Amino acid sequence: EKGGYEHFMLKEIHEQPKAYRDTMLGRIDKETKKVVLPELKLTEEQIKNIRNIQIVACGTAYNAGLIGRTVIESLARIPVENDVASEYRYRSPIVTPDTLVIVVSQSGETADTLAALREAQANGAHVLAITNVVGSSIARDADDVLVTLAGPEIAVASTKAYSSQLIAFYLFGLYLAQVRGTQTDEQVAHVLAAMESLPEQVEEMLGKADAIKTYAEQIASHKHLFFIGRGQDYAVVQEGSLKLKEISYIHSEAYAAGELKHGTLALIEDGIPVIALVTQESVLEKTVSNIKEVKARGGDVLAITYEEHAVELLKSVDQVFAIPKTLPILSAAISVVALQLLAYYASLALGHDVDKPRNLAKSVTVE
Ligand code: F6R
């Protein structure tokens, strides 16, 4: 059942190229080079009228929504807010008939997310669910459903569901851009072509797992560590940090690289591991400055970046891990795989039950 893998989590990490292909299948028109989402009830008229989007979810699905925000804002220029589902309901969210609420849930059964969906509908919002389970409660109750085709996810720690949610956000973001005219046909085609390379690039990434394993074994003895990044990288490291905590029980925090100096830099001391994700070239220099701040306090920095920046970054960090390059808005779909492997191998090195971490359940049906 584990298909030759030691754990479901590792199997599911390796299933991501297939999950990407399946989630894209039939949704990219080969002739017109546009996104087609015939399953949506949302009309073009409604899409043109959207004034704001609220993305609501829990845990890893929430983290996918953080990427969703960067994607939708950059492609479609619609303002997006992210909310944790258990908070959303109780903050009297400001919803109008022109608000689109997107709930994200692998299982489609998370109680907090389902309650948030109902709250949004009661306030008059149109609710789109991004879910992996077609017959789930959330899929049934939502006004629209965009299914991820990751296949069943067994490991408690979500991997392929998260990354397939990213694919769904890319498709939906492009679709919004097409309808609202915020990207040209050429720009849309360019992003789609890059998306179609993602499965192969993830395969290439997976081929380098040994280097991540070696690094994971180095950090496994630490009690605390930090992740830093800017822009989409900041969103990705939040997921990497959650994954690491969840299955290795190593305490970590994900920080916006520029925010460390406003307090948390006080925690950086000799030898503390700091993992810097550096894919967003528009802020690369800024991130390097933040890395230098960390190095000056004794932090032991690993940079995860593109090959072409490796030599330059090695001047400021202790180690570099190179990942395949894609467009800035798509980078999460590759970089997160490195962080999933890191969490996996750290948990393995510590001898924990990777697929069934303590205190956690796959589907959280209590509020
Ligand atoms: C972490 C993890 C959880 C879930 C969260 C929401 O690896 O799996 O954080 O993402 O409980 O679950 P769904 O997506 O089923 O609503």
From TrEMBL:
The chain crosses the membrane at residues 329-350. Residues 43-182, 215-357 form the SIS domain. Its main location: cytoplasm. The keyword Cell division does not apply. Its EC number is 2.6.1.16. Keywords: Aminotransferase, Cytoplasm, Glutamine amidotransferase, Membrane, Repeat, Transferase, Transmembrane, Transmembrane helix. It is found in: Cytoplasm. GO terms for biological process: carbohydrate metabolic process; fructose 6-phosphate metabolic process; protein N-linked glycosylation; UDP-N-acetylglucosamine metabolic process. It catalyses: D-fructose 6-phosphate + L-glutamine = D-glucosamine 6-phosphate + L-glutamate. One of its GO terms (cellular component) is cytosol. GO terms for molecular function: carbohydrate derivative binding; glutamine-fructose-6-phosphate transaminase (isomerizing) activity. The keyword Metal-binding does not apply. Catalyzes the first step in hexosamine metabolism, converting fructose-6P into glucosamine-6P using glutamine as a nitrogen source. Homodimer. This is Glutamine--fructose-6-phosphate aminotransferase [isomerizing]. The chain holds residues 244 to 610 of 610 of the full protein.
